């Protein structure tokens, strides 16, 4: 990780423009200084982690780029979360000229490279979930000949973000882009039948899903039931899933954690309740991390001895977990000693 003097690799990005999208969503165009522009290159679908100070407290939150890499600006779009601290602070207080601390882009919710030119991209967005999907759709339309279908669910017409850019894209690519809006106020929340109807006739396709947890669960289940292969589903979760209950065999108290990082081995006594990442920090190590919500995979490391359980995992595949990989920001040790290696 490049040390630019900011905490944990964060760099200050100036807010170049504030765009009010709807009454409860705002876009921020961020100015990336020339000297670190290489660090802020991103793929469509990725996100930035911001570190903001609200009420004297430092908080980290992830925001996906709503811009596409082909555009010459980097833009994030933030929707108010009722009762949420950072999203409301950004909507109410972010001002042109302010600086925000941001980590370089991360994330695996990206276009597959090895996909065939004719494979359809079918996207399901709910509410603020449109942000990474807008970037993916725009990129697929600009850089490939792939047909694209977008199902976009909102409570009502007032909450649709990017209504005009989407209409313009649909007009410009009428031969291969279908945009279907769903309004709960007209038809109730999205059901499995809505999903099935939308994918009718789909053949070789990749599916991208992002939105509120219940929306994502309905879409994912309906697609799997319709026979879509799990590996063709790409999900980006904005909210952390509920922590799983402690494993039945989680009885053994952990005494120490052995950490290998940058070819140094450190043994740190374990403090009850700490994650492996917190333990590494207690040992004075600069272990990699970004979102700290189990979404980006930056903090992944391999448990080579002992065991740990993750509170949340939205980044690792099942086979990676089987190989011993964990998200250290989410991993609690479950054996007397744990040996973890950052590779
Ligand atoms: C990979 C990723 C990409 C993302 N991209 C975007 C994006 O592009 N656009 C976007 O708008 N969001 C995005 N998010 C979500 C974003 O990171 C924030 O989670 C969101 O803005 C809410 O943050 P907040 O600080 O406003 O809310 P928080 O203060 O974290 O609160 C979240 C919710 O929890 C409730 N809550 C808080 N504390 C308590 C408590 N003690 N008891 C009960 N309830 C409580 C709040 O009422 C609120 O509803 C993304 C998230 C991830 C992980
Ligand atoms: S820091 Fe992002 S998953 Fe751990």
From TrEMBL:
GO molecular function, one term: metal ion binding
Gene3D superfamilies on file: 3.10.20.30, Nucleotide-binding domain of ferredoxin-NADP reductase (FNR) module, Translation factors
Keywords: 2Fe-2S, FAD, Flavoprotein, Iron, Iron-sulfur, Metal-binding, Oxidoreductase
InterPro entries: 2Fe-2S_ferredoxin-like_sf, 2Fe-2S_ferredoxin-type, 2Fe2S_fd_BS, Beta-grasp_dom_sf, Cbr1-like_FAD-bd_dom, FAD-bd_FR_type, Flavoprot_Pyr_Nucl_cyt_Rdtase, FNR_nucleotide-bd
Coiled-coil portions: none
Cofactor: FAD
Start and end residues of each 2Fe-2S ferredoxin-type domain: 255-343
Domain FAD-binding FR-type intervals: 8-112
PANTHER family (UniProt xref): 1,2-PHENYLACETYL-COA EPOXIDASE, SUBUNIT E, NADH OXIDOREDUCTASE HCR
The name this protein goes by in its record: Ferredoxin
Organism: Mycolicibacterium litorale
């Amino acid at each position: 990780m490049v040390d630019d003097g900011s905490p944990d690799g964060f760099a200050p990005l100036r807010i170049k423009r504030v765009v009010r999208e709807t009454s409860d969503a705002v876009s921020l165009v961020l100015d990336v200084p020339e000297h670190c522009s290489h660090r802020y290159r991103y793929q469509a679908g990725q996100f930035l982690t911001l570190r903001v100070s609200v009420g004297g407290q430092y908080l980290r939150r992830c925001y996906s780029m709503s811009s596409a890499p082909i555009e010459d600006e980097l833009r994030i779009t933030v929707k108010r979360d009722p009762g949420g601290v950072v999203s409301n602070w950004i909507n109410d207080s972010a001002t042109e000229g302010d600086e925000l601390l941001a980590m370089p882009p991360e994330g695996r919710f990206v276009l597959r490279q090895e996909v065939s030119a004719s494979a359809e991209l079918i996207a399901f967005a709910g509410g603020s979930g449109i942000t990474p999907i807008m970037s993916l759709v725009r990129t697929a339309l600009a850089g490939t000949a792939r047909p694209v279908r977008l199902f976009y669910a909102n409570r009502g017409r007032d909450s649709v973000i990017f209504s005009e850019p989407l209409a313009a894209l649909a007009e410009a690519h009428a031969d291969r882009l279908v945009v279907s809006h769903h309004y709960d106020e007209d038809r109730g929340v999205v059901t499995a039948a809505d999903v099935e109807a939308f994918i009718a006739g789909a053949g070789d396709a990749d599916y991208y899903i992002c939105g509120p947890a219940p929306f994502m669960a309905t879409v994912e289940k309906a697609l799997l039931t319709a026979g879509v292969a799990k590996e063709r589903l790409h999900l980006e979760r904005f909210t952390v899933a509920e922590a799983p209950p402690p494993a039945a065999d989680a009885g053994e108290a952990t005494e120490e954690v052995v950490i290998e990082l940058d070819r140094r081995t450190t043994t740190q006594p374990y403090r009850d309740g700490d994650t492996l990442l917190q333990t590494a920090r207690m040992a004075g190590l600069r272990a990699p991390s970004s979102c700290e919500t189990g979404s980006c995979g930056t903090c992944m490391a391999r448990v080579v001895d002992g065991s740990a359980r993750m509170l949340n995992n939205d980044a690792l595949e099942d086979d990676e977990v089987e190989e011993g990989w964990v998200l250290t920001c989410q991993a609690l040790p479950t054996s007397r000693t744990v040996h973890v290696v950052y590779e």
